Amino acid sequence: MRRRDFIALAGGLTAWPLAARAQQDNRVRRIGVFMNLSEGDPDGTRWIAALLKSLDEFGWTEGRNIRIDFRWGIDAEHIQKNAEELVALNPDVIVAATAAAVLALQQMTRKVPIIFVAVTDPVALGLVESLARPGGNATGFSPAEVDLSAKWLQVLKEMVPALRQAAVFHNPTNLGGAPQFSTVQAAAASLGVALSIIDVRDKSAIEQAVATFANQPNGGLVALRISENVALHDSLVALAAKYRLPAIYPLRVFATSGGLASYGPDIIEEYREAGGYVDRILRGEKPANLPVQVASKFQLVLNLKTAKSLGLALPQTLLATADEVLE
């Protein structure tokens, strides 16, 4: 049985009396959605469509019995503002992407239920007490265990066998990024690759750092799965193309924007499952009692057009294992 099916079944078994009462409740429920991409982004649009479809399957339809308020953008300028605006609307539940959004929301409320998606290691970040028993006002879906980070460098090395050094887009003060970087470091040692950091906190200095790194031979780029990199995904992909550097990224949105390759969780699946947790909360369950679900499905996406522009012939073994190949 698939995990999503199990969640739905479990919800049916534990919440059916609440569901029966909810049928007599004609209130329009309010849902806040905090997205980590720019409004209109194609991947963000797909994620929202998956959430809406899931909610509809559980009997919640926008314009009939729910109202959804969206806020977009996860850069520093938007995080606090979006969090303040959503909490001020007094929603019944908030769906929030990335740890930065959840941290900002929890600073303002410990009462409004929060369902997060795309949050790596929520226990270490202090968002929940444990995966099995979150304990507070937040629960949700974690995209990957930290060990997955090693796969980024392994795939990059497979695409570029001559790889001898890699620069990692990283914010050293980001708590969620620290364990990812440590894992990449360990993989680098075993693969004989020297590692360095390109600090993404100062946007104005990123291009110069990439340009300096590009002067060294046999190099490649790795983007950690942190909110800063997601917010900068177009810029990071453009810099890799400008300086002709092979790069691997943590989410499909980077590859569809022109990045060479991405390896990471199926975010659409997380949004689908988030719909099930929204349903359970609207029917009376508490996030403190809903376990955090860890992703088990990951996607390797390869961009052949970008590979060709870099003069790379991707191995057939890699192409055969890819979940998606962009022509």
Could you walk me through the main structural features you see in this protein, from its secondary elements to its overall organization?
It contains 13 helices and 13 strands. It is an alpha/beta fold and 327 residues long. It has 2 domains: 3-143 and 266-296, Response regulator (Rossmann fold, 3-Layer(aba) Sandwich); 146-264 and 299-326, 3-Layer(aba) Sandwich (Rossmann fold), CATH 3.40.50. Strand 3 (93-97), helix 4 and strand 4 form a beta-alpha-beta unit. Helix 2 (42-57) packs parallel to helix 11, helix 3 (76-88) crosses helix 4 (99-108) and helix 5 (149-159) crosses helix 6. The chain is elongated and about 65 Å long. The two termini are 34 Å apart.
Task: Describe the structure using short key phrases.
single chain, Rossmann fold, 2 domains, 6-stranded parallel β-sheet, 44% helix, disordered N terminus
Number of strands: 13
Please trace the helix and strand order, writing H or E for each element: HEHEHEHEEHEHEHEHHEHEHEEHHE
> Judging by the overall fold, what is the CATH architecture of the largest domain?
3-Layer(aba) Sandwich
Range of helix content? 40-55%
CATH-assigned fold name of the largest domain: Rossmann fold
CATH superfamily of the largest domain: Response regulator
Mass-distribution shape: elongated
The low-pLDDT segments are 1-24
The portion of residues forming beta strands comes to 15-25%
Helix run count: 13
